[in-house]
Write a structure and sequence with these properties.
Structural class of chain A: alpha+beta
Oligomer: heterodimer
Strand order of the largest sheet of chain A: 1-2-3-4-5-8-9-12-13
Low-confidence stretches of chain B: 1-11, 47-82, 87-109, 468-483
Largest interface: A-B, 34 and 41 residues
Distance between the termini of chain A: 31 Å
Distance between the termini of chain B: 20 Å
Largest sheet of chain B: 11 strands, antiparallel
Order of helices and strands of chain A: EEEHHHHHEEEEEEHEHEHEEE
Radius of gyration of chain B: 28 Å
Structural class of chain B: alpha+beta
Number of domains of chain A: 1
Number of helices of chain A: 8
Low-confidence stretches of chain A: 146-151, 282-299
CATH class of chain A: Alpha Beta
CATH superfamily of chain A: ApbE-like domains
Number of strands of chain A: 14
Strand order of the largest sheet of chain B: 17-16-15-14-11-12-13-10-25-29-28
């Protein structure tokens, strides 16, 4: 192994950047100086070796999850399984659908064990685990398509809200999507739950058999993808307004089911410039041009 | 570049062992991390910034960085390090600060380089093809894979010019036309060969920094001058060695005995009769149709441009050299008793003059200039008041480069620039499905000037922070790099 995890403060001197293999985390902590230092020490300590832990069970993690049985051993792996288990009875899903959120949650957990903080977050490429002390709030910026002019929204999570996890899924990210959503952002109790639910809802935003949608077996693109030969979305041509609404409706009705059983607290679904919100608490629907500079974690 | 972490696995896929995920990566694809990719069977890092010496763009030497290793301060001083935008990433439109804003000290002044990759919907390439061969009529459509990607524009000295891309082909036509145009521009800009066909003309393979291949034949030389100019240049060398010389050229064919240069040397009339339209003495237009034969004409037998010799001036035994403007074609004749030219072996001193013509022709090349406009949104990634950046560029306070290469900023509105793609690092261009090209662009200016024009001061990172984070890789040399 000729790698060393990257552990460094970002140039602002405030946030911690952790990177190892495909994991890329930004940790932000607010509190007394000594507590923040203790928090970052704890994050770095837990982070070291975490990827190896996951990879030890990678073969198992890439298999379809069983709804009622978990043979996984690692804490993060078990959390991944727990997050996808509610969906495993009804469809194909692997624990990998929750990997980003579960890692974020694990690091946040390690931080909070060692430090008393007003506010903290662990952002794993857009899948975010939150800690909010009394009176604190967290503002999340939403971008429906990074490569197009899109309406920007902000989403505010208050300490009184139940949500402590935010995750986004869609066809423009690093992972594949079975659906056509540009993005689906989900608020849930935990980051791993948000991650799994965002995947499920993004998969549901779809127009099966539509000729403008190009699909391809996942393993033709990434030979060892956990999705195997399932068709993943590679390109979506221009859709009519009615078609966009139909696809978004399909996703929104899935989101409403999850909202009803308490698996999510809210969702924002975006497709070709149109947006649907489900359980809109905390969502600021105004486009906010002033948002651009200060709230994005990945500048 | 971390190629040593590769281990072979199968014919095309490779197993990346940079981390325990151990991705199988297909050629042309990246691993789960988007950091490592399979490039022609080799594992390469794709995310890091490319840091190169500023001297490279000025023809200087290259100093490799070691990923993750210590910077060898003995070779290069920090102010000479230049950060290019390749791999900086971007979003469109650029309503957030450019991905990397780097500060370094140059001559004691805190300098800032705002490094971004611009998405250019308004972009294209101007291709200069050094050939006299006929490629097609002016304004003819140029195609790639059957799709219209541009047109033949006005020709320049010894060269045919193509204008490819632009917003109408990228986004104004069919989806396929846009995609093919985007691919064509990207390949040409990345110094890869592209086959183009011209309506009513030739098929030509164009690759920046390489000779053009016209209808399957590689062009070797650019003509030394037009036929008339060639007569002027070589008249003295021919004097006394041959009675008549015809330099065949699609533009102006020259005839030694009638040309002013021949008259000054008292060369006698030969009774030669040229076809075509006489411009001034010894200079003929349109002796044949344009083509890929002698001197950019369509002829393969040079005698076809001559009428019968005039018996009043011509005599049996009169000698004549016919040669093209590049010296690639040349035949020596003597008139027989009926005053008909008969091909004979060329005397050595005339062979020498033909070689001299060849020697004076420069190697024929294709050159590709990328041309793009930095739109309002890209500029907004640099400063909160975009027009101030434009003014700063015009006032020469801000230097614009593309992949570290110098650019020409076209005067007038906006920041429309041209850059020689062979001066840029390998693989500098990418694309987005819009379709549009992604090209690196850097703005370098004083930190104080940057603040004054509304720069994102919170995002300025010291150069050292890039170095420490191993976002550094050695530069590979492309075909056109001058080292």
């Amino acid at each position: 192994m000729n790698r060393t995890p990257q552990i460094a403060l970002l140039p602002d001197g405030q946030r911690l950047h952790l990177q190892d293999g495909p994991i890329d985390l930004i940790v932000g902590a607010k509190g007394r100086v000594a507590e923040v230092r203790a928090a970052y020490d704890a994050a770095a300590r837990r982070f070291t070796g975490l990827l190896d832990e996951l990879c030890a069970e990678l073969t198992e993690l890439r298999k379809a999850a069983e709804p009622a049985r978990c043979a996984l051993k690692g804490a993060v792996a078990r959390r991944m399984h727990a997050a996808v288990a509610p969906f495993a009875g009804g469809c194909f899903i692997t624990p990998m659908a929750a990997v980003a959120g579960a890692v974020a949650e694990e690091i946040l957990g390690a931080v909070l064990k060692e430090a008393s903080l007003d506010r903290a977050y662990v952002n794993n490429g857009g899948d975010i685990a939150l800690h909010l002390g009394r009176g604190e709030r967290f503002t999340v910026g939403l971008m429906d398509r990074p490569d197009r002019l899109g309406v920007m929204r902000t989403m505010i999570v208050e300490a009184d809200d139940p949500s402590r996890g935010v995750a986004t899924s869609g066809r423009h990210g690093r992972s594949f999507s079975l659906g056509i959503a540009d993005s689906v952002t989900v608020l849930a109790k935990t980051a791993s739950q948000a991650d799994a639910a965002a995947t499920i809802i993004a998969n549901a935003v779809d127009l099966p058999q539509h000729p403008a949608i190009t699909r391809c077996p996942a393993n033709e693109v990434q030979p060892d993808s956990d999705l195997g030969c399932r068709l993943v979305t590679r390109d979506v041509g221009e859709l009519s307004g009615v078609e966009i609404e139909r696809a978004l409706d399909a996703g929104a009705s899935r989101a409403r089911q999850l909202l009803a059983v308490g698996l999510i607290d809210g969702a924002v679904l975006c497709l070709q410039g149109k947006t649907v919100m489900v359980g809109t608490r905390g969502l600021d629907t105004r486009a906010s041009p002033a948002f651009h500079a200060r709230t994005l974690e990945h500048a | 570049m971390s190629t040593e972490t590769t281990s072979a696995a199968g014919a095309d896929k490779i197993r990346c062992d940079a981390c325990p995920v151990m991705c199988y990566i297909k050629p042309g694809a990246a691993g789960a991390c988007d950091r490592y990719a399979n490039h022609d069977g080799k594992l390469v890092r794709v995310d890091p910034h490319i840091v190169l010496e500023r001297t490279v763009s000025q023809g200087g030497r290259l100093v490799p960085f070691q990923a993750g290793g210590d910077w060898d301060g003995k070779i290069v001083h920090q102010p000479d390090i230049f950060v290019t935008a390749i791999g900086a990433g971007t979003t469109y439109p650029d309503y957030k600060p450019a991905p990397f804003i780097v500060s370094s000290e140059i001559d004691g002044i805190d300098m800032v380089t705002v490094v971004t990759e611009g998405i250019f919907s308004y972009c294209g390439v101007k291709v200069k093809i050094d050939t006299d061969r006929y490629l097609g009529p002016e304004t003819a459509t140029v195609r790639a894979q059957g799709e219209a990607v541009g047109h033949v524009t006005t020709s320049e000295y010894g060269s045919q010019m193509l204008s490819l891309g632009g917003v109408h082909h990228l986004t104004g036509g069919s989806k396929k036309e846009g995609r093919v145009t985007c691919d064509t521009l990207m390949d040409l800009s990345n110094c890869k060969p592209v086959e183009l066909t011209i309506d009513g003309g030739a098929a030509v393979v164009v690759q920046a920094g390489r000779p053009p291949i016209v209808n399957g034949v590689t062009e070797e030389r650019m003509r030394v001058g037009c036929g008339s100019a060639t007569i002027g240049m070589f008249a003295k060398q021919w004097h006394g060695k041959v009675d008549e010389v015809v330099v065949v050229d699609d533009h102006i064919t020259g005839v030694l005995s009638e040309h002013q240069a021949g008259k000054l040397l008292d060369i006698a009339d030969t009774g030669i009769k040229m076809k075509g339209r006489r411009s001034t003495p010894g200079r003929y237009f349109q002796v044949a149709e344009p083509g890929t034969g002698w001197g950019g004409t369509n002829i393969s037998d040079p005698l076809s441009i001559l009428g019968p010799f005039n018996a009043k001036e011509a005599r049996p035994g009169l000698t004549m050299l016919m040669v093209s403007t590049t010296g690639e074609h040349a035949v020596y004749y003597e008139l027989d008793e009926a005053l008909r030219p008969v091909e004979k072996e060329m005397p050595p001193e005339l062979k020498f003059s033909v070689e001299r013509i060849q020697e004076n022709c420069e190697p024929a090349l294709c050159t590709v200039l990328f041309m793009g406009g930095a739109g309002g949104s890209l500029r907004a990634g640099v400063t909160d008041n975009p027009v101030r950046l434009t003014r700063s560029v015009k006032d020469a306070l801000t230097r614009v480069t593309s992949g570290g290469a110098p650019v020409y900023v076209w005067p007038g509105g906006g920041i429309t620039f041209m850059v020689d793609v062979t001066q840029m690092p390998v693989g500098a261009f990418g694309y987005v499905p819009t379709p549009a090209l992604v090209a690196p662009i850097e703005f370098t200016l004083r930190l104080s000037d940057y603040e004054a024009l509304g720069g994102y001061m919170d995002y300025v990172r010291p150069l050292a922070s890039l170095r420490d984070s191993a976002e550094i890789r050695p530069m590979r040399l492309g075909p056109g790099w001058r080292v």
